[in-house]
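Below is how a single chain appears once it has passed through the pipeline. First comes the sequence as given, then the structure the pipeline wrote out for it. We keep one example in the README because the format questions we get most often are answered faster by looking than by reading.
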Amino acid sequence: MRSTIRARLTLLYGGMFVAAGIVLLTLTYVLVQNNLQGPRGQLMNQVITSAQMPDTRAVPGGTPDPLRLMQAPVGRTPDPLALLQGAAPVKQGVAAGPGPQRIAKVDGKVDGRLLGAVDSGGKAAYFIQRQRVGGAADDFQKATLDSVLTQGAIALGLVALAALGLGWLMADRALRPVQRITETARRVARSHDLTERIGYDGPRDEVRELADTFDTMLGRLSRSFDGQRRFVANASHELRTPLAINRTLVDVAVRRRGASEDVRRLGESLLVVNERHERLIDGLLTLAGGENEVTERTPLDLADVARHVVDLAAAEGGEAAERDVTVRGELSPAPADGDPVLLERLVQNLVENAVRHNHRGGTCRVMTGVHDGWTELTVTNTGPVVPAYETETIFEPFRRLGAERVRSDRGSGLGLSIVRAVAGAHGGTAFASPNPGGGLRVTVRLPNSGRM
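Resulting structure:
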């Protein structure tokens, strides 16, 4: 599963903090190590050595007692100058006197031959004890470095967890303007209201530029679509007048007393073409108006609207009777809020489409109800087999199936486009699916008002 930007930013913040902490811990370890091995570390070793050396208890005018040097309690500070006064230089590991003696340890104990040295035996015991105390100083340095590393790693882990939590909160705060832009874009896509704006008033940074650019884009889209709808509406209104004049002239010519049979047939064909043009213009006007969001809504039952359309379609002399198509209604309460005129046109287009794209003796079923919290209208029919890949394209304007694109006796090609536009203006959706035995099933979903 792909991680979100917030999670990636949190990991980035935490990773950078951990990397910086590791670098800081490494530098601290190196500095402490150098400090322990430098002049201050040597001074500390001398202090530790002086604190742990036993009392020499030297005999006046003589040499210290070796047994007392080896058995004396720790914690008394000797006088190194008094021990070494008048003594010959002694190399580490060798006792002074006639016959050098090797200082050796067997199982952690001093070799007994060392005690056989002559009068310099006391000095040899002192240096043996000094070697032991020097080992303790080395252990102290190692323990100090280990403590710095261990405790620093534990502290770094705890602070890294706190940094991840803080990074999660900071990422949320940084992405809040982006979430606001996303919510606005989602509302615009759902409601088709291009007049809404983000209106982000934060500092002039990259997020502000993104919000301003999005608002500018919405403004240009709004002006473009408004201009397109105004052009369609104005052109349709302008074309209605000449079409009405043409219909009147043709009708007068056909009904004239001296009109020949050829003139009558030609007039009837012109009236059919003129009627199709009038339906096309009426459909364009409805499509231009249906794409606007419905602002004034009336509570209604979609079942009542569908019942009225079904009764008109099944009446004697209607289009369904002419094509021998049976129209049945299975209507359950379907509360909705909307424009009654537009919703009636929606149902009418679906029923007309189901009747026209059918075969003789076929059926058309109109069903309403509430499903999954949505008010649904479903119109299904028998007829030719519809490919599944064509169910989306038939909602495009002037789009027909196969060879029927060039036929004009089955409508203007705007029926389902108007259905989807009206459904979208009411905050709903429209989709289609082919029936297994032929025909189409079109479903319209509208928000449920819940008043019934």
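Residues 154 and 160 are 10 Å apart (CA to CA).

See the next section for the split statistics.
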